[in-house]
Amino acid sequence: MKSKKFILPESQMPTAWYNLVADIPHQPRPYLNPDTHSPITESDLRLILADELARQELSTERFIEIPDEVQEIYRIWRPVPLVRAIGLEKALDTPAKIFFKNEGVSPVGSHKPNSAVPQAYYNHKQGIRRLTTETGAGQWGSALSFAGNHFGLDVEVFMVRVSYDQKPYRRLMMNTWGATCHSSPTTLTQSGRTARMTDPHTTGSLGLAISEAVERALEDPEGTRYCLGSVMNHVLLHQTITGEEAILQMQMADAEPDVVIGCIGGGSNFGGIAFPFLRQNFCEGKQIRVVAVEPESCPKLTRGTFQYDIGDYSGYTPLIPMYTLGHEFQPSAIHAGGLRYHGAGAIISQLLHDGHIEATAIPQTETMQAGVLFARTEGIIPAPESTHAIAAAIREALRAKIEGRNTTILFNLSGHGTIDLFAYEQYLGGHLQDYIPSDEEIARTVQRLEQII
Amino acid sequence: MKSKKFILPESQMPTAWYNLVADIPHQPRPYLNPDTHSPITESDLRLILADELARQELSTERFIEIPDEVQEIYRIWRPVPLVRAIGLEKALDTPAKIFFKNEGVSPVGSHKPNSAVPQAYYNHKQGIRRLTTETGAGQWGSALSFAGNHFGLDVEVFMVRVSYDQKPYRRLMMNTWGATCHSSPTTLTQSGRTARMTDPHTTGSLGLAISEAVERALEDPEGTRYCLGSVMNHVLLHQTITGEEAILQMQMADAEPDVVIGCIGGGSNFGGIAFPFLRQNFCEGKQIRVVAVEPESCPKLTRGTFQYDIGDYSGYTPLIPMYTLGHEFQPSAIHAGGLRYHGAGAIISQLLHDGHIEATAIPQTETMQAGVLFARTEGIIPAPESTHAIAAAIREALRAKIEGRNTTILFNLSGHGTIDLFAYEQYLGGHLQDYIPSDEEIARTVQRLEQII
């Protein structure tokens, strides 16, 4: 009987992250200071990030070694299995081979601790005592709580109010790991107070929660730093452990992917699986297709504009060159909370612009249908975010069937969905609807962006 | 750096379950028909169970082969990691080595699918189309939904009302895998209707839910059978895959347990880890201590009586020779819902009676304290049930420290707790209380039992 899971021994866990900046054909344009429009420097970044993270953000080294202390915590759940989705293949009656990397086995239930752990480590090493961050769906906030706890750091999470109210379990996970979790907007920050005054009934937004977390960190330059869960280069760097493991595991499975698929919010999950395979394209002449999957309701890659935008609501982050819908864009309340973000990271945006990756947008009902099929054939209930990658993999597998091709598909299962089951209830109850923003709606927020280049 | 996880390759996954009945020094007394008091036969059991499960229930074969179809589904998550709890060891500053088997990595989040999968398989093979079962905390109901779905069976779960109302996520998992979940007591059965008439505000009980599920199965002898998640021999048999894996993995870790620990409700988790190590005691002359851990609020092993009792409320199950508090005992509403059961399986009860295993009872606050320490040192948030095993392991490790012994401890982490986080909220908020039933309270329900032997 063929193996279903391909498990890398701990002794073969990759010991370095991969920095795609070393091999990308065209470098992304630099981050800019939102006030002066001059390129951001490492010392600018140090105001909000730990020194080593600021260094990594601008680094061009090809590989960055994973510290032993980080490897030790990774070993709680890593290496994570590569799985051959035999049940799904059978249900689709496809000649395609489907593999997925199961990042849902982490204690947090997603890929997020891959970056949370090194971020906490470098801050701790620098003598920082407190971390602040935002969280939307709650995955990142849980991950940083888990990671901060390991290094004895206080962690303060600003959780978007709508999620805070709807997802008590995520908040309780953070509490269990010793973190504090606020419903954002709070009265603790200027950004929060302003938002509450403007609209007392606001349900909050990710951009606003970022603003609150950054503002809070800036108040205490000695002891506090901010941490971000996606978008920035150093976060994507840490996530490449996934793709590096996957390369070794595909060899164990004696297979090579024709197409690599990841869902995309800011890009941490997508970059994690994609970048190491893109290295094979850039350096070894391979021609692996790499596909980013976004929700049709938040289509920054397929319908956004490629220009500078800020990462938060109030403008505490640098200007980032990105595919964006505008930071004031209000995505509809789809269940994949981790994908409701207006922009994509700079490297990913550059890759798409230059034609090195593809992007596709899928409606919510199709993704949840894919999620239920996956749950019933592979046993694992996927996170609503991950169902986007599954839906795209299913499209590829069905195309392979029509065309009679033996395609090999690899996707990243970013997390499990057992703390997001209301999405399934709504889908199974027939209450889910698709939402496609109109051209006017997108133009409205895009047109408000500064035209810098 | 030393390995933290010991991962068995899929190719080395055990291919047979172990039946302790073949090696136990004194056989348990037979199950009895509750009406006639004559020993139950295989054909009696076939009225409610699939034929092969009825056969396994009374089997004395040492090893029973795991069918290929079951192994294939086991491979979705098995073999499960054996983990060295280095973080916990450090926090306790103990010379003891602590290992645990992580059954929380299954798609359901617990050990329960180890038996749900073969139960669904044998029923399917026999041409049964529908399964009925009960669930308390929801783990077993989820597991049977997951398993039944794989074989195209309809699954109907009677979930104790208090859990149904408090744990919507569990119900939603069952729905996602295509099962129907009722709040028990229902109006679908005589047992349910009687209970609702007697007390319209009843919050239900596990014994009552079992009665409903059995009654429902008996209505359709052609197409429906009942499945049980614990207590009975065939269920514990299926769970031995855990202990069999653990034996191989302890060899990989170059270690031998001095003590093996499992929490106990009906005995499925405890038997799963304990029985293969007891074989080593009985057949190879080893002297491994084996400890069953129960909640102080439901102390059947430490304060119950050893005699015949029924497994449900209405008397649809055989009379089972067990340590019991009486089937009318109402355990307090502790968070470890899976341990709120009045009796222990026949084999386990016989083992305790004959001094082959030990039993200990631990109060709820101590177990939750242990759970939080585990979450903060090992990263994994344990199920409230599993925190009992952790608390006992901590007691052993601290004793080893005082006595300066290099004890090796192995416990079974029956599941993760991310769907039971309200227990942690209550504990962290200081709202948890311990409850110790009085001698009178226990005597009241024990005295109502028939004196058969």
Task: Describe the structure in your own words.
Two copies of one chain form a homodimer. The relative contact order of chain A is 0.15. In chain A, helix 3 packs antiparallel against helix 5, helix 6 (139-150) runs parallel beside helix 8 (168-176) and helix 16 packs across helix 17 (386-403). The first copy, chain A, has two domains: 5-11 and 67-109 and 234-451, Rossmann fold, CATH 3.40.50.1100; 113-228, Rossmann fold (3-Layer(aba) Sandwich), CATH 3.40.50. In chain A, the strands form four sheets. In chain A, strands 1-4-5-15-10-11-14 form a seven-stranded mixed sheet, with helices on both faces. The model of chain A has no long low-confidence stretch (mean pLDDT 94). Chain A has 453 residues and is of the alpha/beta class. The first copy, chain A, has helices spanning 42-45, 51-58, 68-74, 86-92, 113-125, 139-150, 161-166, 168-176, 190-198, 206-218, 233-239, 241-252, 268-284, 300-303, 346-353, 364-378, 386-403, 421-428, 439-446; strands spanning 5-6, 16-18, 63-65, 82-84, 97-102, 130-135, 154-160, 180-184, 224-226, 259-263, 289-295, 305-310, 319-324, 358-362, 408-413. The first copy, chain A, starts with a strand and ends in a 7-residue tail after the last helix. The longest helix of chain A has 18 residues, at 386-403.
Distance between the termini of chain A: 58 Å
How large, in whole angstroms, is the Cα Rg of chain A? Answer: 20 Å
Provide the CATH topology of the largest domain in chain A. Rossmann fold
Which CATH class of the largest domain in chain A applies here? Alpha Beta
User: What is the CATH architecture term of the largest domain in chain A?
Assistant: 3-Layer(aba) Sandwich
Mean pLDDT across residues of chain A: 94
Oligomer: homodimer
Largest interface chains and counts: A-B, 46 and 45 residues
Which spans of chain A have pLDDT < 50 for at least 5 consecutive residues? none
Largest sheet of chain A: 7 strands, mixed
> Fraction of residues of chain A in helices?
40-55%
Task: Count every helix of chain A, treating DSSP H or I runs of 4 or more residues as helices.
Answer: 19
How does the overall form of chain A come out from the CA principal axes?
globular
Q: Strand share of the residues of chain A?
A: 15-25%
Q: Report the strand count of chain A.
A: 15
